[in-house]
Fold:
Amino acid sequence: MRIAILSRNTKLYSTRRLVEAAEKRGHEIKVLDTLKCYMDIACMRPSVHYKGVKLDPFDAVIPRIGASVTFYGAAVLRQFEMMGAYPLNESVAITRSRDKLRSLQILARAGIGLPLTGFANSPDNTQDLIKLVGGAPLVVKLLEGTQGKGVVLAETPKAAESLIEAFRELDVNFLVQEFIKEAGGSDIRALVIGDKVVAAMKRQAKDGEFRSNLHRGGSASIVKLTPEERSTAVRAARRLGLNVSGVDLLRSNHGPVVMEVNSSPGLEGIEKATDKNVADLIIQFIEQNAKPNRTRTRGKG
Structure:
């Protein structure tokens, strides 16, 4: 099978592990820098060119598209979908998951547990917005933030009001969410492939920090999920249309709540914490599901 990985860096742990797993299972695999791909749009036979060469068709594409290049990366992936390649995650599902507001609205409509969340534009509504999420302490999140960037904890009502007004002055889109104090600075990353959680780890924030991201010094350890947590993770991934995802959960007093669903989850932390060969499981999933023109959206939407 010919497989392409859309990744800007061949040295990244996740990219290397996927290449190793694919080659070990006998596949031909090529890493393509997403931004160096360009496309022939207005023709009857869509194609992708790379470094001056028209690419031969691939059986499957693994998108490892960074948040900063979502728009162009999704366009490249759509082109491969139109050419009949099987995408591990479809372009529509990726753009849907990268829009924090839209993804939360989709999950809420499906009845999946979420933290109390508010979104507004007018500065006249600041105090009522704070009330919507249960008051301070609360968390303010940039819609475009990743790896814990643009996430701020406001511990008092006055701090919350000042922070919200400051974000509005910057003219950026942001969410206001309740602070799940009982989580104790930890969250759970559930790695979902298809309709199954294949690995899960607990991420604990370092002292003095409420964000548990490993990029911010958090630690990771293996964790056993409850049936409800497994079901929540799988349902969240399915509702967003993702075949492979990292679902971030918090353990709240009213059950598991979804913080975010990541369409390009890193493999290093979870493979080392759980000793699971997640990369191999991803390649196995492609082997079982990759068929020509199997994309549900066929590059639409």
Summary: The mean pLDDT is 89.
